[in-house]
Amino acid sequence: MDEKWHEIDTFAKKAIKEAGRKIVDSFDEVLKIQTKSNVNDLVTNMDKQIEKYFVEQIDKHYPDHRVLGEEGFGDQIQDMLGTVWIIDPIDGTMNFVHQQRNFAVSIGVFHEGEGKLGYIYDVVADELYHAQKGNGAFLNDEKLSPLKDVPIEEAIFSINATWLVPNRKVNHEQFIPLVHKVRGTRSYGSAAIELAYIAAGRLDGYISMRLSPWDFAGGKVLIEEVGGQLTDLNGEELSMVNNSHIFAGNPAVHQKVLKDYLNN
Ligand code: 2AM
Ligand code: CA
């Protein structure tokens, strides 16, 4: 990593911490809540305010960088040319609204399609997961270890109950043998936090459907930096401009589940 990326990393961390302070300060205010694609797909004034804050900061400091943001205040992004920031200002908005915890700011910075910087900030836990490509991944000041192999019987898997009952996006029956086999299942309601937990070895696998690039861009850089895998359900590379079903995991678990449980 050269000087330029160190400088961008310092700028990003400062902006993310500031965004976290703005979010915590908002807990005392009344949120304005709207719905998006369906009645359970929530957005608040804070999602919008925080994304606008990032877009303004990036435009001011790096006018030649582009931004792909969930709330649409960035640029229209159809390709990954140049430097692109992929931002989810609040991942886990339902948790933010109902629980005031278990949500995160998630950012991935890509250059010519390559993930360079990744951040997931669990605001209330004050856990900042960060990675610079080639320099390792960290949780606050602590370096994360490369992921060790875990037998499938001892794996903890994150999957939402939605995908284990009949649904419109995926055949739920394919996951039943997997859920029987693993040691335990969990669901946290924030893709970003679940990906950060994979990077930290707290979870060994995570499956979720129809996620957008801003849900997994930061997590991709983090997971790859500790030797983990993040692909679609066929083991193929994820697009950074389209939605995907995603499967993240410890390398041994990922390989075994793709072959033995997802018919690849
Ligand atoms: P969000 O909070 O940024 O919308 C919830 O299980 C996870 O799935 C969250 O990370 C949420 O991100 C993401 N998600 C993606 N698309 C969604 C949708 N249409 N409705 C609700 N959550 C969605
Ligand atoms: Ca969001």
Short description, anyone?
This protein has 264 residues and is α+β, with helices and mostly antiparallel strands.
**What is the makeup of the main sheet?**
7 strands, mixed
CATH architecture of the largest domain: 2-Layer Sandwich
Write down the overall geometry.
Answer: globular
Placed side by side, the strands forming the largest sheet appear as 3-4-5-6-7-8-9
Q: What compounds sit in this structure?
A: adenosine-2'-monophosphate, calcium ion
Please give the domain count.
2
CATH C-level class of the largest domain: Alpha Beta
Query: Runs with pLDDT <50, length 5+?
Result: none
Separation of termini? 36 Å
Helix and strand topology:
Layout: H1 3-25, E1 33-35, E2 42-44, H2 45-61, E3 66-69, E4 83-91, H3 93-99, E5 104-111, E6 114-122, E7 127-132, E8 137-139, E9 142-143, E10 156-159, H4 176-181, E11 184-186, H5 191-199, E12 205-211, H6 213-225, E13 229-231, E14 244-249, H7 251-260
Parallel strand pairs: 3-4, 10-11, 10-12
Antiparallel strand pairs: 1-2, 4-5, 5-6, 6-7, 7-8, 8-9, 12-14, 13-14
Bound molecules: adenosine-2'-monophosphate (2AM) and calcium ion (CA).
Calcium ion binds near residues 91 and 93.
Descriptive notes:
It is built from 7 helices and 14 strands. The protein is of the alpha+beta class. Helix 1 (3-25) runs antiparallel to helix 2 (45-61) and helix 5 packs parallel to helix 6 (213-225). The strands form 3 sheets. Strands 3-4-5-6-7-8-9 form a 7-stranded mixed beta sheet, sandwiched between helices. It folds into 2 domains: 3-143, 2-Layer Sandwich (Fructose-1,6-Bisphosphatase, Chain A, domain 1); 152-262, D-Maltodextrin-Binding Protein, domain 2, CATH 3.40.190.80. The protein is globular, with a radius of gyration of 18 Å. It binds adenosine-2'-monophosphate and calcium ion. The site of adenosine-2'-monophosphate has 13 residues, from strand 4.
